[in-house]
Design a protein that fits this description.
By secondary structure, the protein is of the alpha/beta class. About 35% of the residues lie in helices and about 25% in strands. Belongs to the universal stress protein A family.
């Protein structure tokens, strides 16, 4: 089945790194890649004072840049079943993503995000935070700056087993099947036993992922889930982190922090955030 992948770009190297990762991740899959860019004024208060004669050249320049990015991606692709298109819009990044989702039924949004230096620190850009908070239709893949592609043979999936698993688990299953990956299921809890509800959800997860290589891991000696995940990634050479974005979840708490703060979370590997299906 053909995948429809949206790659928003601001023409930075960070955005290009994300595009390259997407091309290689789906190198053997029929895909249509949509490169999108939203034209907007940084200072919207001055918008009405700028004559159209000055705006038009800026718009044309950015349209040309968008086409250049698409053509650059075409050259990098090694699959004749890859197709490419551009989406140029006016307004915010979120507006452009919503437009693409509505028109093209996007399966995955791929964006770059700049990581901070330090063993357990990250700075999520304001755009990444906004998309995490607002995009609820398609999974979001955040690719760290200068991240070099490595096939995701080891997928990390933290879970508390407190929620009923639904369609959203299909995204993890498809990714594992695509690259013949193992899945490390990580449970972080101070308690040494699971409740009846947690055990029932765990059994459900096993049934959904039957036939795949599953490894179950338990971490109890961490003050924060962020540190537990960070250390697990380092110790086990995880290639990609996947999480389901439930309401009132760990992800929601993470992105509520001011973006200028260091968030005790490591983003050296891509992070796939899967929206909860209602």
């Amino acid at each position: 089945m053909r995948k429809h992948i949206l790659v928003p770009t601001d023409f930075s190297e960070n955005a290009w790194s994300a595009a390259l990762y997407a091309l290689k991740l789906y190198a053997n899959t029929p895909c249509t890649f949509y490169f999108s860019h939203a034209f907007t004024f940084l200072n919207t208060g001055t918008r009405t004072q700028v004559p159209q004669s000055q705006i038009d050249p800026l718009v044309e320049k950015e349209k040309e840049q968008l086409i250049e990015v698409m053509n650059r991606a075409k050259k990098e692709s090694t699959n004749s079943d890859h197709e490419f298109d551009t989406i140029f819009s006016f307004g915010s990044l979120m507006d452009s993503i919503k437009l693409a989702n509505k028109k093209y039924k996007i399966d995955l949004v791929v964006m770059g995000t700049k990581g901070a230096t330090g063993a357990k620190k990250i700075l999520l850009g304001s755009n990444a935070v906004a998309v995490i908070n607002k995009v609820r239709r398609a999974p979001l893949l955040l690719v760290p700056s200068k991240c070099k592609y490595k096939a995701p043979k080891k997928i990390l999936f933290p879970s508390a087993f407190t929620r009923f698993f639904g369609e959203e688990i299909q995204s993890i299953k498809e990714l594992a099947e695509l690259h013949n990956s193992s899945i490390d299921v990580l449970h972080i809890n101070a308690k040494e036993t699971l409740s009846d509800i947690q055990n029932a959800n765990l059994d459900m997860l096993k049934n959904y992922l039957e036939g795949l290589e599953l490894n179950f891991n338990w971490r109890t000696d961490y003050k924060t889930k962020a540190y537990a995940i960070t250390d697990f990634i380092k110790e086990n050479n995880s290639n990609i982190l996947t999480m389901i974005n439930y309401e009132h979840s760990f992800i929601e708490n993470l992105v509520k922090e001011p973006v200028i703060k260091r968030l005790g979370f490591n983003s050296k590997i891509p992070f796939m955030i899967i929206p909860r299906k209602k």
